Amino acid sequence: MIVIFLGPPGAGKGTQAAHIVETYKIPQLSTGDMFRAAVKDETPVGLKVKAVLDAGDLVSDDIVAALVEERIEQDDCADGFLLDGFPRTVVQAEALDAMLTKKELAVDAVIELRVDEGALLDRLRKRIKETGGARSDDNEETFKKRLEVYADQTAPLIPFYEKQGNLKAVDGMGDVEAVSAEIDAILSEIRR
Ligand code: AMP
Questions:
Q1: Whose CA is nearest to atom 11 of ligand 1?
Q2: For 2-187, which CATH superfamily applies?
C-alpha cells in the first residue's frame, strides 16, 4: 500500500504517520526527517540543504526526488510505504509517478489533512513548548514562511490528485484518535 500524506506544516502528519506505521506495518518515509538527519551528520546533502531548511524554503526537486527514489528501493518498502512530506510540488508528484510506473506500482491513496490555518500557529507554539524548540525551523517566522510555501507550491497537489481520483480529505481538527479513525476507514477500504 502506497500512501501519501498531504497537509500544511502542523496539520498532524507526523502524529498520524506513527499510527499508520503501527497499524499497517509500512515504513514512514519523511523527507523532512531524512534532511534533518543529513544536516546533523553533515553529509554532502546535509551541508547543501541546511540553509534552505532553516529558511523554510523547499529543497530542489531533483535532490528530493533522488533521495526518495533511493529510499523506496530498500527492502522494507517492498510492501508499501507512507510518504510524509513528499511530494511537495507538482514536479515532485510527476517524478514520483514516473518512479512508481517503472516499478509497475501506483499511489493507492492521498490523504489530505484539512485544518484551519488559524489553528496552526497555536499548534506550533504547543510543539515548541513540548519539544523545547528542537527543530531549528520551528519558530514563528520560519513557520509562516513554510505556510506560504505550502499554499504556493504544495496546495496545487490537491487538484492534481483529485484529477487522478486518489484524493481523500480528512478533517484534521478532531482529536488524534478521531483523525486516526477517519484514516483507518479510508485505508481499510483500499486494502480490500
Ligand atoms: P518537514 O519535516 O516535512 O516539515 O520538512 C522540513 C523541511 O525539509 C522543509 O521545510 C523543506 O525545507 C525540507 N523538505 C522536506 N521535504 C521536502 C520536499 N518534498 N521538497 C522540498 N523540500 C522538502
A1: 58
A2: P-loop containing nucleotide triphosphate hydrolases (3.40.50.300)
Residue 68 · residue 86 · CB < 8 Å: yes
How far is ligand 1, taken at its centre, from the CA of residue 165, in Å? 25
Domains of the chain by residue range: 2-187
Tens digit of pLDDT for each residue in 98-125?
999 999 999 999 999 999 888 888 888 8
Which cell numbers hold the place of 43?
553529509
Q: Is the CB of 58 under 6 A from ligand 1?
A: yes
CB of 31 closer than 6 angstroms to any ligand 1 atom? yes
This prediction's pTM:
0.93
Cα 22 to ligand 1 centroid, rounded to whole Å = 23
